[in-house]
Automatic annotation (TrEMBL):
Residues 1-17 form the signal peptide. It comes from Thalassarche chlororhynchos. This is Adenosine 3'-phospho 5'-phosphosulfate transporter 1. SUPFAM superfamilies: Multidrug resistance efflux transporter EmrE (SSF103481). It is a multi-pass membrane protein. The keyword Cytoplasm does not apply.
Amino acid sequence: RFCLPLVLAYLPTMATGEEIPPALQDSWGDFWLFRFFVNAAGYTSIVVPGFLLIQYFKRRNYLETGRGICFPVIKSCVFGSEVKSVHQEDGSLPPRVEPTESSTARQVFKLLFCAAGLQASYLTWGVLQERVMTRTYGATETDPGEKFKDSQFLVFMNRILAFTVAGLYCALTKQPRHGAPMYKYSFASLSNILSSWCQYEALKYISFPTQVLAKASKVIPVMMMGKLVSRKSYEYWEYLTAALISVGVSMFLLSSAPNRHVSTVTTFSGIVLLAGYIIFDSFTSNWQDALFTYKMSPVQMMFGVNVFSCLFTVGSLLEQGALLESLRFMARHSEFTAHAVLLSVCSACGQLFIFYTINQFGAAVFTIIMTLRQAFAILLSCLIYGHTVTVVGGLGVAVVFMALFLRVYARSRMKKRSKKLPPGETPVQKV
């Protein structure tokens, strides 16, 4: 019976390949794998009763037999209207509204507004994310200060503000009649929570520039999965850009390894957490793509997903007693409170800028803006937090972003060519 605690206490050392200080050996509960299972147990305590209730209402044929004041709520959560719309071509967003009588100056102003909003929101978000997860609060000459450790609380802060913003937007603007059963949002919500949690936790083990490059290389596992599972076909330029991305990321990581600097060493835990982020994030986008077969707007999707995200995270935090502990940390450190609130504001505003930019200018322009944002994020992180990048590492970063821009250019050319194809032909599927 003494073996399990000893193994759990030794797991952080095995995973990171680093020696744990004696003061931390007794706090093995801070190890990310333990916290992951504790969080998952909290979500399960909500998911399982919800699943049983849904099955109960479906077996009772509640849609035909139910009545009373609770009937509209149960109908919306369990059954919905079950009216699906024709699936959009891009699988996620309504068709872009082309401007009819808009001057060039006005379009340029809109583009600059979108670019500035996206850059300001997500660059600030990235800088604050690294500050909150890697630096201490309340440090003085005699006191080293303390770090904030609960990534789930940060996810909760982000989601509750996004839920509020999306709710207000839906209430103040005209939206399509909602048809999807509300419980279906919970799947995307769970994967979204876990991907965000992995993203925050990964910063404890790897540098922010490494995390940004790993996100940029997400196309590689997506292509591999599509080839192995779905037997998809890809163009030669997709294989070329995927190879360039892998070469660039490898150059950056290998050039950083000899320094053995705390902020640049890619540990085993960091790699696993990044892999978890990519897997969960890929599921989120695919499930949301399926949900868009119902008639809904992107803001309604944002609202539905964040409703369940708030429910799951606050339930798990209350079960662990971590909500009050995090609030006490906020009370002790007003600087952290400002950072956490601003982090949430940037996340919520960034989502709205995403919807507006794609609706006004399309996915290609949005991808270019966000690719530039990733490059600026790496530069800002290096300038503010002192990450060192070698010449070889810098070349690797340049190769990655050159490949990303090449993908955008090639995809836009393919879309233009596909419009000229005869009705019977279809272009090769792309990722």
